[in-house]
């Protein structure tokens, strides 16, 4: 396959301007974005993306999960397309770049091909996956999961938000439910550009991360049941304090994750105590433990040790404890050929690079099940993401998009 010349690079100013223009839709309260999936703001962002794609000569496809596919034709009508993309939806207090860089970096790739009058054998398709974030309709990466056969479509349609509105109804309401069967498309390869959402690349002064693996994830909801009681009149030895048990279990979560350093991580990000009153000893605590590792055996070990530690603590305190697996996926090994294309692109362009493991879940993790897949990452300031203060530099965006351009175009095969 002929690789693009090293002097072929994307238009950084145009990419940056597009990022800033998209960020005007669904503004947050602190400089970021609140463009949650299937909201009116999401619909507005989709419409802008479609307009830009059509102006670049692409035709837009839309499947029954609302996934968007902007296609630039190749010279071989029988060649499978090379796909590229990410997501436009954000956290309720999200940044301007999480997901959006991958979608608009794909669009910039198309625009650059047009500028250079380059034709490719394989079509190139820029994708916006619906509901990657999963904040409004759990779980995360919902529509790419349906596309890859991980979830049933009817189950996905039935997911409800905090107001009881269903995914399926809201998809219809905003006008972005297509007719195309989800998962019917076949891919030659899939590439995703994303911000790192961690501090490693910036701390080491590295331009791009070549993602070799994606961490596996396990979410376990733990429910500790004790007894509500008055904080002032209940003697300390007679209390059944679910909040205290939770605190002790969370110390064990930290200990368990640290025992599998450096790649394993663990935390509890969702915590509720009941009745949550100033002068009532909590009689119930519900929290979700998030364990991640690139090794499945490590995840299983952490799950087992969490259960054993929680049962020991609660038995000692005279409390009950229950566990429910509420989410998870196995570690991902990305395609060696696609990973090599990204690494070779970085070297050709003279960008510093290092192998990196993705600590977050991404649409690429599901698509890897149905097509050769890889990811490229760029740094973000202080590793901050899922936060309105999320920030990257124009140079970082350019480096990531340049590497994406070269990897995708080489895979799609330039036609002389």
TrEMBL record:
Family membership noted in the UniProt record: Belongs to the peptidase M20 family.
InterPro entries in alphabetical order: Amidase_Cbmase (IPR010158), Bact_exopeptidase_dim_dom (IPR036264), Peptidase_M20 (IPR002933), Peptidase_M20_dimer (IPR011650)
Essential cofactor(s): Zn(2+)
One Pfam match: Peptidase_M20
Lineage, uppermost ranks: Bacteria, Pseudomonadati, Pseudomonadota, Alphaproteobacteria, Rhodobacterales
Residues annotated as binding Zn(2+) 2: 98, 133, 386
Entry's cofactor comment: Binds 2 Zn(2+) ions per subunit.
Chain sites annotated for binding Zn(2+) 1: 87, 98, 194
Molecular function terms, GO-annotated: hydrolase activity, acting on carbon-nitrogen (but not peptide) bonds, in linear amidines; metal ion binding
Stretches of the chain forming a coiled coil according to its record: none
Keywords for this protein: Hydrolase, Metal-binding, Zinc
This protein's name: N-carbamoyl-L-amino acid amidohydrolase
Record Gene3D superfamilies: 3.30.70.360, Zn peptidases (3.40.630.10)
């Amino acid at each position: 396959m002929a690789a693009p010349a090293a002097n072929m690079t994307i238009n950084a100013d145009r990419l940056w301007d597009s990022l800033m223009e998209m960020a005007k839709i669904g503004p947050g309260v602190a400089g970021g974005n609140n463009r949650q999936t299937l909201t009116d703001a999401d619909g507005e962002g989709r419409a802008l993306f479609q307009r830009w794609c059509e102006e670049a000569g692409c035709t837009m496809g839309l499947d029954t999960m609302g996934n968007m596919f902007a296609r630039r034709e190749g010279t071989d009508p029988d060649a499978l397309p090379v796909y590229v993309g990410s997501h436009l939806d954000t956290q309720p207090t999200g940044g301007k770049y999480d997901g959006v860089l991958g979608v608009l970096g794909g669009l910039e790739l198309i625009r650059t091909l047009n500028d250079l009058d380059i034709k490719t054998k394989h079509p190139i398709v820029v994708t916006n996956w619906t509901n990657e974030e999963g904040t409004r309709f759990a779980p995360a990466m919902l529509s790419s999961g349906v596309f890859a056969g991980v979830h049933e479509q009817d189950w996905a349609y039935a997911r409800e938000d905090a107001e009881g509105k269903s995914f399926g109804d809201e998809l219809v309401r905003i006008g972005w439910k297509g007719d195309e069967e989800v998962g019917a498309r076949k891919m030659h390869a899939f590439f995703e550009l994303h911000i790192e959402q961690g501090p490693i690349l910036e701390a080491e002064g590295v331009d791009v991360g070549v993602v070799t693996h994606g961490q596996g994830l396990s979410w376990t909801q733990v429910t500790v049941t004790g007894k509500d009681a008055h904080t002032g009149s209940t003697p300390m030895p007679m209390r059944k304090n679910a909040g205290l048990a939770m605190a002790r279990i969370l110390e064990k979560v930290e200990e368990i994750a640290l025992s599998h350093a450096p790649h394993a991580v663990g935390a509890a990000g969702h915590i509720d105590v009941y009745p949550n009153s100033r002068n009532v000893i909590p009689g119930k605590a519900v929290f979700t433990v998030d364990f991640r590792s690139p090794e499945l055996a490590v995840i299983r070990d952490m799950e087992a040790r969490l259960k054993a530690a929680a049962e020991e603590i609660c038995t000692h305190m005279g409390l009950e404890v229950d566990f429910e697996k509420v989410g998870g996926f196995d570690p991902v090994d990305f395609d060696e050929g696609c990973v090599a294309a990204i690494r070779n692109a970085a070297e050709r362009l003279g960008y510093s690079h290092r192998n990196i493991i993705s600590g977050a879940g991404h649409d690429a993790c599901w698509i890897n099940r149905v097509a050769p897949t890889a990811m490229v990452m760029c740094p973000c300031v202080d590793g901050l993401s899922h936060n309105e203060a999320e920030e990257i530099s124009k140079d970082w965006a350019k480096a990531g998009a340049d590497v994406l351009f070269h990897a995708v175009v080489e895979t799609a095969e330039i036609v002389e």
